Prior knowledge:
Layout: E1 3-4, E2 13-19, E3 23-24, E4 29-30, E5 36-43, E6 46-57, E7 65-66, E8 73-77, E9 81-86, E10 91-102, E11 109-116, E12 148-151, E13 156-159, E14 167-169, E15 179-181, E16 187-189, E17 197-199, E18 210-212, E19 220-222, E20 249-255, E21 260-269, E22 272-279, E23 282-288, E24 293-297, E25 315-317, H1 350-355, E26 359-363, E27 369-373, E28 383-385, E29 391-394, H2 396-417
Amino acid sequence: xxxxxxxxxxxxxxxxxxxxxxxxxxxxxxxxxxxxxxxxxxxxxxxxxxxxxxxxxxxxxxxxxxxxxxxxxxxxxxxxxxxxxxxxxxxxxxxxxxxxxxxxxxxxxxxxxxxxxxxxxxxxxxxxxxxxxxxxxxxxxxxxxxxxxxxxxxxxxxxxxxxxxxxxxxxxxxxxxxxxxxxxxxxxxxxxxxxxxxxxxxxxxxxxxxxxxxxxxxxxxxxxxxxxxxxxxxxxxxxxxxxxxxxxxxxxxxxxxxxxxxxxxxxxxxxxxxxxxxxxxxxxxxxxxxxxxxxxxxxxxxxxxxxxxxxxxxxxxxxxxxxxxxxxxxxxxxxxxxxxxxxxxxxxxxxxxxxxxxxxxxxxxxxxxxxxxxxxxxxxxxxxxxxxxxxxxxxxxxxxxxxxxxxxxxxxxxxxxx
Length: 418
């Protein structure tokens, strides 16, 4: 049967005697006419130690939850002690959460609880500790001090933690929480779903800084300053114009915008629009809107050729070109002496090189007839091979050099015979 305390001035009531087991003591104490209790604990046994706490409920048969007063939970009790607890519940129960030691018959923990009315205020250093809490309701005008940290080790909420004036929700570390609002209004939401509008700046019209998401006629992101726009998953679709300022740009890949590693970069380079591709930190190609080079493609070492003739207006700057055919107005052999070393005349006998050449006609397997030289008849020093050592072409400029040498040799013979 419940113990009903009629005398609010403090008649001690025994709740348990010789307790050696964990669990809730099934003896509710009525505290409906008191706001505090005095708890007296008497310990007998060898090496005795116990943890216990007071639980409260609005009805005797309701779910009992821990009291908020810090003194309501005691741990490591090894000797007799007495302490006071502020209560706000009508019914109390005592729960032993840990008991250890050696106890003879009749030994253990004996506890008396005396309800009374405390004439002073409640305790300043109070907290709320509950297993489950449906709601807290209070008619408070303002809270001007303090902080709130709620949650277990896997998912927490921080409000004004360490006096920072911020809010953080989720995760185990406040600085990495997926939802954070700082005291100066900076919002971080790593997985936000927004059905309406977030408006910043003066007023609510779209002339200010504006973010609109949802089924409306003016879905847009418009802001005077936008440091970064990041899309971690999915895609970003632009049906209108994307304008990038003089100091801005677009980069996709590894590394950073300032130091690309591998990826694609679009930016304003000193007033010139540029698009470039990078591999392993080397700029392999670029397009830009001013100057002689309109398109640049580098080899694996980042090298190109850009010694343009004076009257050229630019075009493609690259190292090697592999193609099916070339249609041109003029073909110039690159022969800038400033870019050469060890210039020597051809000493090989041109007629011997030319006599072995075998002109042929043939058809390409993928279509088209052609005339050329049998690759097997071309001098070895003019033959080009692929990575596997297969002969795939020859140096036409070298063939022309041997033809010129052969003509010179014929001319010398004719002069000698004259």
